[in-house]
Amino acid sequence: VPELRKDPITSRWVIIAANRAARPNEFLAAPPRRVAKVCPFCRGQENQTPAAVATYPGIRSGRSAADWQVRVVPNLFPALTSDRRFVLEQNGLFETGPDVGIHEVIIESPHHLVSMCDQCDEEVALVLGVYRDRLIAASGRPNVVHAIVFKNVGVAAGASLEHTHSQLLALPVVPATVAEEECGAQQYYQQHDRCIYCDLIEQEQRAESRVVGRSAHFVALCPFASRFAMETWILPAEHSSHFEQTRDAQLVELAQMVRQCLLRLQVALAGVAYNFVIHSAPFDTAALGHYHWHIEILPRIANAAGFEWGTGFHINSIPPEQAARTLRTVDLSCFIPTGEDVSTRKTS
Amino acid sequence: VPELRKDPITSRWVIIAANRAARPNEFLAAPPRRVAKVCPFCRGQENQTPAAVATYPGIRSGRSAADWQVRVVPNLFPALTSDRRFVLEQNGLFETGPDVGIHEVIIESPHHLVSMCDQCDEEVALVLGVYRDRLIAASGRPNVVHAIVFKNVGVAAGASLEHTHSQLLALPVVPATVAEEECGAQQYYQQHDRCIYCDLIEQEQRAESRVVGRSAHFVALCPFASRFAMETWILPAEHSSHFEQTRDAQLVELAQMVRQCLLRLQVALAGVAYNFVIHSAPFDTAALGHYHWHIEILPRIANAAGFEWGTGFHINSIPPEQAARTLRTVDLSCFIPTGEDVSTRKTS
């Protein structure tokens, strides 16, 4: 059974999950390659995963319920699973917390596609809507206070299965990165009575040099202090603290922005591995004036080394101004979403 | 010219170093392999690196000065270089600091060895003594307040050259990881009037389950909240805040502990990549009662993925008790340091 452990010096959390040592890894052999054995996420292999907690039919008409487009299943090797009360046990200097959380897999297509880039805007919008649904469902569950939605694409980004999928991990504590963002943003709010992300968007739009794209309600930019080369953030232009408050009408627009950013990245750096993370405010808060949800796309070109793990500093050899210029100037005209019926696509 | 940038929300630092995009990488092609072209760190290739800032003769007698055993050179692609005053420039929300720091490479052998495991205790002790010398030299330089000594072994650990080497990076600010450790340790010191690391060593020695090894003056253990599978720390058993205060008499004993820990890891996980990091107190402090220097050996089996980068949490699928048991039970009798003359070894 997994457990949470707190470092007695730094208070950082670690999930000790011996059960995860057994999980399959398509990528164990280098170089990364598509593996011949059956993919548990493909249509027809539904019995290879735990029973679905939610299933979404295709976006075209005339589909049967079995003819799913997106499928949400519990992770077969969950990092965290129970909904017990999160009570810490103390043993001298050491504190251990019970296995409390939710670990779901969102299978984004019945077909063996490897990236959101392979889908049309409406398909990606459906996936984003599923993120929203699952965040809302998790927020109603006892003893979890935050959930992170993330995606690993490519072996260098930590992916263990190739078929396009994301994960939701709900936690009994607010994770350090979100807590740090919230803490910094709250300080700014107290001083200026404004959201620092809103001010940042305004400054970046005036400067232009780090802007990758802009639509009616969303902005994509390479952040000023990018940790990763070609790092890209997508933020709602209007203030919003919780991703799950995104309205239906904006999902397709957001999908278009996400897909375009991923395509720009793929063209600039063919086959690049990346992580995709949604940072949203903790569940147990009403709409926050100081926090602003955002998506972080973190390309994994260089491997974090001793310096990064030892200091928490990052070294980035592509200035974000150069990264944004490269990404902005990618010609997307050859990638017009086809909207073709996915059923005509090759399955694995 | 590199520059330091501070994230306006989280205050985390990033070094933007476009100059480093050009550095060579023996490992660009997967799988990792030994590259045929000339290694700039091997004896006879001294003109491939900047001029040495320090050179150490071999530990056996009768060597000429050119017959170096350890060589310290400025990094050809430094992350930071100057000794200017560290004054931040503000532009709206964004703060930029000048390129201030020192980036040195410690070439640990004239021979193309790939790991400290390939050397005898006395050779490793010489390298540890060089770390001490370079930390003392850096601490006397203006405008830097801390230096990290680290080593990347294997491509999965971010190594770009295979020849056994370490790096020293001196910084104009105390890095986040050391600041967090110091902050947590200081809180504990204020409450208990004791060093938390000293108490941790005591508790771990009583529990035994996470102890990997013990000598007169050093302890090796798998930390309670290990972030990485098989993570190992080496700490001085007696309180000491600064690595550079280590006495000559203890260097060989420490070298033996380091080498044994690395050998145990190599036997348990053949060919594993790892980072090796020395955490020591900032330069500008006298001996600190609350901080305790230590070495962290961070095996890189699993790749940090979206969850880790997105939350700051780590998932570790090997409990440290199991890791310590595995490492402890490695039979080292077949690895008795030979003390052979290194000049008889194969060069690349």
What keyword list fits this structure?
homodimer; 348 residues; alpha+beta; 15 strands; 22% strand
Explain what you see:
Chain A is of the alpha+beta class and 348 residues long. In chain A, 24% of the residues lie in helices and 22% in strands. Chain A contains six helices and 15 strands. Chain A has helices at residues 121-139, 176-192, 196-207, 248-268, 306-311, 320-328; strands at residues 3-6, 13-16, 54-57, 68-74, 89-91, 94-98, 102-107, 146-153, 165-171, 211-214, 218-221, 232-236, 274-279, 294-299, 314-316. In chain A, the strands form two sheets. The first copy, chain A, has a ten-stranded antiparallel beta sheet, with helices on both faces. A four-stranded antiparallel beta sheet of chain A has the order 2-1-6-5, with no helix packed on it. The longest helix of chain A is centred in the last third of the chain and has 21 residues, at 248-268. Chain A is globular and about 50 Å long. The relative contact order of chain A is 0.14.
Short description:
Two copies of one chain form a homodimer. The first copy, chain A, has 348 residues and is of the alpha+beta class. Chain A has helices at residues 121-139, 176-192, 196-207, 248-268, 306-311, 320-328, and strands at 3-6, 13-16, 54-57, 68-74, 89-91, 94-98, 102-107, 146-153, 165-171, 211-214, 218-221, 232-236, 274-279, 294-299, 314-316.
